[in-house]
Structure formats: structure tokens, C-alpha cells
Amino acid sequence: MVEDCLRDQILAAIPSLRAFATSLTGNRDRADDLVQDAILRAWANLDRFERGTNLNAWLFTILRNQFHSEYRKRKREVEDADGSYAARLKTHPDQQSRLDFEDFRAALATLPLDQREALLLVGAQGMSYEDAAAVCQVAVGTVKSRVNRARSKLAYLLDLTGEAELGPDDVTKAALAADQV
Question: Where does residue 88 rank: exposed (0-12), middle (13-18), buried (19+ CB within 10 A)?
């Protein structure tokens, strides 16, 4: 009965794990493989999970450690280092929101890994600073600092100077206002 409950909780965590893995890797297929490996490791080591502790934090830690292990292995590999091949495969989007999203992804990718990881856990996954600190195996203050530095750097990279710049652009706002009339 306990294992059935844990199995259900693990299955419920898969979408969040997948989103985190996609954000870390930038590749959905690689992210799916990473999540699958993390789930398999978690299931194989279920006896190491301390009952009563945060299962999601434990799963995110396994996924994060798996990512870093793969990252160290791939560090020596060279795949399209200048991005020229990938640039030829890319189609340019024709909608502003898509362009903004691509700008955000590019800016996010330039953040140092520790800052990006902390920002994704707290901002995108909605984890508390304490849970994110447990996943990253650092102090809570370190996570807060990393998140703050990541947010500041993103605002600088995206040239955001105020809250008014967040959300829909002026054309979208005008279209929405016209629909309400």
C-alpha cells in the first residue's frame, strides 16, 4: 500500500520533472530521457527515500544529479559548437510572443547554471526557497541570492526597465481592449 502511494506521487511529479529537465537541457527528447532515467533511479533506490520527507525534492535532486553527470560526460563532446548547423534548421517565427519567448530562452541559457537552476526551481516549478536549497544542496540564502542575481541578469539582458514591460505588447493590449467593447 505504501509503495502504491509512492508510485502515485512519483507519477504525479513527472510533468514538473519534465518541465525542469526541458529547461535544463533545452531539448525535449533529451529531457524525456533524463526524466525516465531519474524515475528509474528513484524506483530502484526507493528504499533510500526517507518516509515523511519531501518526495518532490528527492526526485528533483536525483534528476539534477543525473543532469550534472551527463553534463560532465558531454563536456568533452563537440556538437555544432558555433551553432551554424542549428541556425540553418531554425525557422524564424512570425508572431511577437514567439519572438519574445525565444529571446527569453536565449537569455535564460546565458545564465550560469547554478542561477538558472535556482530560478527554474523557484520561479517555474514554484518550489519554496527551502525545497530548492535542498535540491541544490546549498543554503537557503544561497538560493535566494542566485534567484535574485538570475532575475536581475534576465531583466538586463531582455532590457526590461519596469513592470509595464511585462505582459502583452501594445498591439495585443489594443486588440484585447477592442474585444471588450
Answer: exposed
What's the fold here for domain 95-165?
Arc Repressor Mutant, subunit A (1.10.10)
**What does CATH list as the number for 1-75?**
1.10.1740.10
Give the other-Cβ count within 10 Å of 78's Cβ.
Answer: 7
Rounded distance, CA 142 to CA 137, Å? 10
pTM above threshold 0.70 = no
- What percentage of residues in the chain have a pLDDT greater than 90? 43
For residues 17 and 121, the answer to whether their CB atoms sit within 8 Å is: no
Distance CA 11, CA 8 (A): 5
Q: CA torsion sign, 119 to 120 to 123 to 128?
A: negative
CA distance 178 to 168: 14
**CA dist., res. 13 & res. 56, Å (int):** 7
